[in-house]
Amino acid sequence: MADRMEIDSSDDSREMTDANQQLERELLQCQKGSSPTAVHSRRIVSLGVSPHYDAILERFQIDRMAFRPYFVDACDHYAVLVPDPADPEGRRSLGFIKYDKKSSRVTLANACLQLPFEALELGFTTKGDQNQLAGSHGDGLKLAAVALSRDGYRLQVAASRCSWNFYLREPCKSRLHCTITPSRQSGSTRTDWAEDIAGLRFHPERDVAVLIGPGRTTQGRPVAPEEFLEWLQISLDIRGLAYPSSVVETSHGDLLFDQNLLGRIYAHGVLISGTNSIYPFKVGYNFTEGKINRDRRWLMDRHGLAERVCRIWESALQTHEDVLLPIYVSLLRKTPALMDVSLAADLLLPSTISRIWTYLLQESKGKDFSIAKHPEPRFIGSPISVSLVTG
Q: Is pTM beyond 0.85 here?
């Protein structure tokens, strides 16, 4: 989990709080395929190092700004539902995550997908050339199966009219196996799939579902409710649970002003491990482009990361200049070495520099001021430092 950069002065905290309140007021005003796996009998597959996993965004061609999952706390379950953006009444969903409080089992379901046999091959993926999607390494399903099995959980996938059961075998439970059998679950798929998903129901012949925890007839470690809620914390997108209280969304990514998220970095809504210890930030960010490795760490150099930060700020300034420009200038003045602004002198567009210049002229009220570059020995490049000179 990324280390959080604490605000180092009370003035900064008050400034962020004032900005959050103003942003909230502004935002409130703005609101006035693959073929089925052909398996006819029980089959055991040994998974060596030798993935077809379709995201909801990819399957239904949803813009990420319309992807708004929300959290539900019911008497017998927790749930995260992904509503269909085309349904204003909220009766249709594209996917869900459910935690059954009685059985202590987790179900994750995506509608209208198939799981091909190639998904068991480490390295098979359909997301390699899609920069807007997380993943692309082709090992998520397999690594999740290994990690969960080692922790004593039972992992089952219901898809393509089959039941895929993962387990570790001897010697020393070091080899992952998957048993694939025709599904015994019955039920008509002629019902409305989106209403089924909204009702937390899935069909293995039509949908893909992952089940974690004890089954009806098999043993497995139960998932504790606090464990389930902790698993959800790596996601930024869940309304009513982990979604930030103060955020500015742009086409290039999001600025996170929530006090609990300052300095945290997300990619495609997933928390990035260890980024802040390498590249320290003051504000939180959610990047919507770029790739991460298998350990949820950046596959991006400092220059590329700084450039994406500049694009996010520039896009946000176009819609919230009155609130955000004072914050950005404050970062230039007080923390020029942080990644928020460390390469701003080289990467900002002329139009953004003009905005800063106009702001400083207005702030100076006729007083002289200077803009100087100060080299920072830890980094390559020359951060901007803005100083007002009275007189």
A: no
